[in-house]
Amino acid sequence: MPTDFTEVAENAIQHAANLAKAGEDEVVLLHIINSDTKSKLKKDGETQSDLENKLQNTADELNQKHGIKASYKVREGSIFSEIGDVAEEIGARLLVIGTHGVLGMQHITGSHILKVASTSPVPVIIVQSKGVNASGIKNIVFPIDSTAENKQLAVQAMNIAKMYDSTVHQFVTHSTDEFFNNTIGLNSGYATRLFNDNGVKTEITYQDPKGPGIGKQLVTYASGVNSDLISIMNEDRSLAEFFIGPENERIINNDEQIPVMVLNPMEGLFIYQSVLGKYGKE
Prior knowledge:
By secondary structure, the protein is of the alpha/beta class. The protein folds into 2 domains: 7-127, Rossmann fold, CATH 3.40.50.620; 139-281, HUPs (Rossmann fold, 3-Layer(aba) Sandwich). It has 9 helices and 11 strands. The strands form 3 sheets. A 7-stranded mixed β-sheet has the order 3-4-9-8-5-6-7, sandwiched between helices. It has a two-stranded parallel sheet with strand order 1-2. Helix 4 packs parallel to helix 5 (110-117), helix 6 packs parallel to helix 7 (178-197) and helix 8 runs parallel beside helix 9 (246-252). The two termini are 32 Å apart.
């Protein structure tokens, strides 16, 4: 859980705490010391020890308020590499990060957040300033497209859904190509079987081929079902037909401030093994 001590980062910490409590996990706070940090510390007359005291106090508060394990790490370097490196080092299951304009010390904006997410070995949940739903993540929306990687997204949506007894809403995209539409149908069938086999509630809706852009339709639909999370893939190659470049940024920075889970495609095709409770290469 990277933090730069801004209000947006504090809100992201509360989201991380909610997830950690539901998944019986630990929250590891992370601050990356860079030139922005050093300038801010000098301006405020503070030292790295003061910064670490703030992190420890936050970890103690999370433990007392939520009853979860919490700790912190401090690294020096670039947010674009260190965050992903630390996530891999500690064996993180999720990375939660706040996005905002040019504020605080880390300057993590919509365009930068995708660069940070691209280095993560685990799914990244990106939040804005909207607070945590007291009931947790009860509704999840994810787009069904024609890519093989879409199955990976279904697995991650299922993992979150099982933590909260959520409903997963499939937003089935539309293509002008019949072959792609057939593949989209197969991916939706796979996702439906996956959810049914694992006791996850699911509903299906379809993109209006005559409607506005896919990003706008997706967010509008997510808002209509009171979604607490939207899931997308973070690679132009796998989303070239639907989420090209700026569409990802629009979804992440959506006006409804719905948190967005971003997943980097894994090597090979990963299929969920419902009997084993894990997924693996096929």
